[in-house]
Amino acid sequence: MNLIYAVLAFLMAVVFTLVGVTRVGAWLIERRNPPIGEFADIDGARIHYVHVPAPAHADLPPIIFIHGASANLKDQMLPLRPLLEGRAEMLFFDRPGFGWSGRGPGNNENPSAQANTIAALMDRLGIRQAIIVGHSFGGAVTSAFGLEHPDKTLGLVFLSPATHPWPGGATSWYYDLTTIPVVGWLFSETLTYPAGTLQMADATTCVFSPNKVPDNYVASASIPMVLRPSAFRANATDVAGLYPYALGASPHYREIKAPTVVISGDHDKVVYAQIHSVGLVRDIAGAELVWVHNLGHKPDWIASDLVVGAIEKVAGKDVDLQALAKTVEARIASDTYGAGKCADIKLPEAELAPT
User: How far is CA 343 from CA 137, 170, 201, 214, 338, in A?
Assistant: First the structure.
């Protein structure tokens, strides 16, 4: 019996130590990555955003950027704001539960609820209509916005989106574990910070692979913010809930009428581009697919010039996106970063869609 008590005492000591390490780690992350924008209360969620006002001689309409899983507003603002500054009003924001935004009572439901939060933030800032640019999971929120707020949608740009059901609907085990009541809370409060810190460099390499991770990307884009327990739980809830949401939402994408461009790489190691990107172009009338050879999951960073061209295209400008894609391909043709470390995700032959 004494041995049992000793083992239990040891386990409790380990748990409390890990909780302490996580709390200190989260405090350090927030200290190193303070908020850079303003805050607005939207339906009970304190949303952190950066609003770039319209310039005097804007040649583009307002643009709203929606980041993907595990990220925050800096992930799109750092590569794209410098290219669009002085051309358009821009809105970058931390999705509910990410970065410095609170989750709020309604944003656990699905991407549709987050789209409604964006619409309310637009109203707060006086943005009547905008081009919506979404990356990865942000693509699901972008499609929800296009469906539910067509009056506010001038155009849609999808970057390596995740929008459709995929075979089996599986996600990483740690997302599923984190969504389990009590067990998931304990996991996020003890292990996600130390384990995530150890794995972050390799994981980031595979997100960008075969392209090079930009110098100082993790620190400059404040990616460790997702390792805080509350943010990790929000991230897990979003990712684990994407498949059932996509099952119900994707049949309605045909109702989207806004001008649409989809940019994807044929070496994306995070999402099934043949399902999501090809599916969007199939479902949305007039949508253009820009398929970039040797591009991974991060066109916002690796093909920023192409993303700007896509924004211009949905704004009505005459832009040859396929020619721009060739320029990007020439620039990244020899990239082999992550080779041997990052496995390609491949569909069974029966599931392959033509590209």
Answer: 20, 16, 16, 20, 9
Q: What pTM value is reported for the model?
A: 0.95
Evaluate whether 266 touches 161 at the Cβ level (below 8 Å): no
Tokens of 271: 């999402």
Residue 149 burial (10 A CB sphere; 0-12, 13-18, 19+): middle
| Burial of 354: CB neighbours in 10 Å, binned 0-12, 13-18, 19+ | exposed
Nearest to 245 by CA among 99, 49, 111: 111
The 3-class secondary structure across 258-327, one letter per residue, is CCEEEEEECCCCCCCHHHHHHHHHHHCCCCEEEEECCCCCCHHHHCHHHHHHHHHHHCCCCCCHHHHHHH
How far apart CA 174 and CA 103 sit, in angstroms, is 20
Q: For 337-346, write each residue's pLDDT tens digit.
A: 999 899 887 7
Quickly tell me which residue has 């995740």 as its tokens: 162
Task: Judge contact between 264 and 272, C-beta under 8 A.
Answer: no
E-strand ranges in the chain read: 38-42, 45-52, 63-66, 90-93, 130-135, 153-159, 260-265, 288-292
- Cβ atoms of 161 and 280 closer than 8 Å: yes
Alpha-carbon torsion 124, 238, 283, 267, what sign?
Answer: positive
Chain segment 226-270, per-residue pLDDT in tens: 999 999 999 999 999 999 999 999 999 999 999 999 999 999 999
Give residue for tokens 């192409």: 306
* Max Cα distance, the chain (Å): 78
